[in-house]
Specification:
Layout: E1 5-9, E2 16-21, E3 26-30, H1 36-48, E4 52-57, E5 76-79, H2 81-89, H3 91-101, E6 114-115, E7 129-133, E8 140-145, E9 150-154, H4 172-184, E10 191-194, E11 200-201, H5 202-221, H6 233-248
Parallel strand pairs: 3-4, 4-5, 5-6, 9-10
Antiparallel strand pairs: 1-2, 2-3, 7-8, 8-9, 10-11
The structure holds zinc ion (ZN).
Length: about 250
């Protein structure tokens, strides 16, 4: 992806895992996912290259982003304080999610997160800065690597998913716009890694941001949404949920 930055993509949901290499074979592992076999393969890939996780990061409190395997060792895994609080509060639901969709994970290491103090992960490697917002989930934290210009966006800025606002929020669209705007203003992005989908360059990042703002505007206006990403059933269902929620509230 960039010098010292690797992305693995799982078959399930086109989920990405990002590996950032640091000093002495240490690496920062972001959103390792998704099946038990994927994590075992990831651990094997790291070992074969003399790498070992020294820190972890979960971008947001959804089950497919708080996974881990004993094979990956016992590095401290961080998330934003808000994401950690939500993870603790909603642990039963997260466990239900992982068991229904990707069974077999060791639950003793599932969702074991520490709140990050400040906005940078302290580790011996490239600077990793957290950008926290509540767009797709409460306490969603993208990670930006200023040295290489890589933005690990979590479940935002995807080429295969429409924006998926947090429907439990009081103002899902407002929160989403605020989060997207925050990411759009990060200076120096040259590569974007979405939580699900494909890596994009600077121009691709800009066009995804524009497409996402366009989608939000159309949904809010209640007009027909023409978005090439609205091709699969579950995304159409999410789109209908958001539209009806806004209509109910008299906003759509
Ligand atoms: Zn998510």
């Amino acid at each position: 992806m960039a010098p010292g930055v690797f992305v693995a993509t799982a078959e399930k949901y086109t989920t990405t895992t990002t590996i950032v290499t640091g000093a002495d074979g240490g690496c920062l592992l972001i959103d390792p996912a998704v099946s038990v076999a994927d994590l075992v393969a990831l651990a094997r890939w790291l070992r074969a290259r003399g790498l070992h996780p020294v820190a972890g990061w979960s971008t947001h409190p959804h089950w497919d982003h708080v996974l881990w395997s004993p094979e990956l060792g016992d590095a401290t895994r961080y998330a934003t304080p808000r994401a950690v609080a939500v993870t603790e509060r909603e642990l039963p639901g997260l466990i239900e999610g992982v068991q229904a969709s990707s069974p077999g994970h060791d639950l003793t290491v599932f969702a074991q997160l520490e709140p990050l103090a400040g906005t940078e992960i302290e580790w011996r490697g490239p600077r990793a800065v957290s950008y926290a917002h509540d767009a797709h989930a409460p306490g969603h934290g993208a990670i930006f690597l200023p040295d290489s210009g890589v933005l690990i966006a979590g479940d935002m800025c995807s080429d295969i998913e429409i924006p998926l606002p947090d429907l439990d929020a009081t103002d899902p669209l407002g929160d989403y716009r605020t989060g997207l705007d925050l990411l759009a203003r990060v200076p120096g992005i040259t590569v974007v890694v979405p939580g699900h989908g494909h890596v994009g360059d600077r121009d691709e990042f800009r066009s995804r941001v524009a497409a996402d703002f366009g989608y939000l505007e159309a949904v809010e206006a209640g007009t027909d949404v023409v978005d090439p990403r609205l091709t699969v059933d579950w995304l159409r269902a999410e789109h209908v949920r958001l539209s009806s929620l806004l209509t109910e509230r008299g906003e759509g």
